[in-house]
Amino acid sequence: LLVRTRSCHASEKCWKGDHSECENNNRCGKPWIVALKPKAHVSLRATPQRAGEFGIRLGQDTKQGDVVCVEVKEQNEPWILGRVVGDLGPCELKTPTDTPCAVLVPGDIVVEMQKLEPVNPGTKLFDVTNKVFPIRAKDMRLGKPQVKHLEVGRSGRCRSAPARTGMRNIPGVAMQRQSTSRCEIGSSTHSRILRSMLLCDEN
C-alpha cells in the first residue's frame, strides 16, 4: 500500500498518481510503501465445501474419547457436543437416513458420537447421555474443545472429577452411571465454538 501522513488531493501530480513529486509533501509528508503480510494460519472455511473439507480433516485427527463440536442445521440447536465412540469410515447405510444431526446418504464419511445434552438452553453444563448416533465428519467444526468433567452426587450437586481422555465404556456394552456424569465448558471454549460455526450462505 502507498500511504502518507495526510491526504493531499490538491496537487496536479497527485491526481496523476505521481505522489513522490507532490508539491505539498512538506505539509502532507512524503509517501512510503507498506507491505501487507498474510497471517500464518488463515481460515479458508468461507464456503460449505471448504467447511466440509476442514471437518473431514478434523475427523481424521480425532480418536475415540475425544470431544467434538458438530454443526447442525437447526435453529433451536445450531451445534452439539459429543464424544467420539467409534472409528471414522464410510456410511454403510443403503438408503438416505435421517439422524439427529443430518440426513446421511451412502458414501458419507461418518463416525459414531455419544451426545452431551445441555442441561438447560444456553447453559455451559452438559449431561453425558446414552444417545449414540453417527455424524458426518464434514459437519465437525471444532475438535478437542476443553471440557471439565464433573460427577453428580445423590443430592444433584456437581463436583470436579479428574479429566478422562478415553471412554469408560465401549459401544455395544452397557454404559454405567450415564445419568450421574456431566461436563462443563468455560466461556472461552463457548466463544471458540461460536466462532467455529460456518458463517456463510448455503448458496
Terminal CA distance: 33 Å
**Quantity of strands, as a count:** 13
Write the element-wise H/E pattern from the N-terminal end onward: EHHEHEEEEEEEEEEEH
Structural class: alpha+beta
Outline:
elongated
Q: Sketch the major β-sheet.
A: 9 strands, antiparallel
Residue runs with pLDDT of under 50 for 5 or more positions? 160-179
Range of strand content:
25-35%
Radius of gyration: 25 Å
State the helix count.
4
Helix content: 10-25%
Mean of all residue-level pLDDT scores: 77
Report what the structure shows:
There is one protein chain. By secondary structure, this protein is α+β, with helices and mostly antiparallel strands. It has 4 helices and 13 strands. The strands form 3 sheets. Strands 3, 4, 5, 8, 9, 10, 11, 12 and 13 form a 9-stranded antiparallel sheet that branches. Strands 1-2 form a two-stranded antiparallel sheet.
Question: Which keywords apply here?
Answer:
alpha+beta, 9-stranded antiparallel sheet, two-stranded antiparallel ribbon, elongated
Give the topology, please.
Elements: E1 2-3, H1 12-15, H2 25-28, E2 32-33, H3 48-61, E3 67-71, E4 79-84, E5 89-90, E6 97-98, E7 103-104, E8 109-118, E9 125-136, E10 140-143, E11 148-152, E12 158-160, E13 181-184, H4 187-196
Antiparallel strand pairs: 1-2, 3-4, 3-10, 4-8, 5-8, 6-7, 8-9, 9-13, 11-12, 11-13
